[in-house]
Amino acid sequence: MASKTGGFPTLDDKLCFALYSSSLAMLQTYKPAMAAVGLTYPQYLVMLVLWEGDGVST
């Protein structure tokens, strides 16, 4: 892939950077809601798995 820096890839050229920055943006979006119930995002994901597993609706 041609880049702006004479053959060396930049962060804009990397899919992994786009995915990483998108992930951070999503985590920041969820952070206030998770803080309100005292959970981190990974803890929230575990809670979702547990809720799905026991058949109890939210």
3D architecture notes:
This is MarR family transcriptional regulator. InterPro entries: WH-like_DNA-bd_sf, WH_DNA-bd_sf. By secondary structure, the protein is mostly helical. It has a domain of 38 residues. 62% of the residues lie in helices and 0% in strands. The longest helix is centred in the middle third of the chain and has 22 residues. The protein starts with 14 loop residues before the first helix and ends with a helix.
Number of DSSP strands?
0
Rg result: 18 Å
The SS-based structural class is mainly alpha
Q: How do the SSEs run, as a string of H and E?
A: HH
The overall average pLDDT, rounded, is 82
Taking pLDDT < 50 over at least 5 consecutive residues as the criterion, the unreliable ranges are none
Beta content? under 5%
In short:
It comes from Roseateles saccharophilus (Pseudomonas saccharophila). The chain has 58 residues and is mainly alpha-helical.
List the helices and strands and how they pair.
Elements: H1 15-36, H2 41-54
List the main descriptive attributes of the protein structure presented here.
about 60 residues; mainly alpha; 2 helices; WH_DNA-bd_sf; MarR family transcriptional regulator; WH-like_DNA-bd_sf
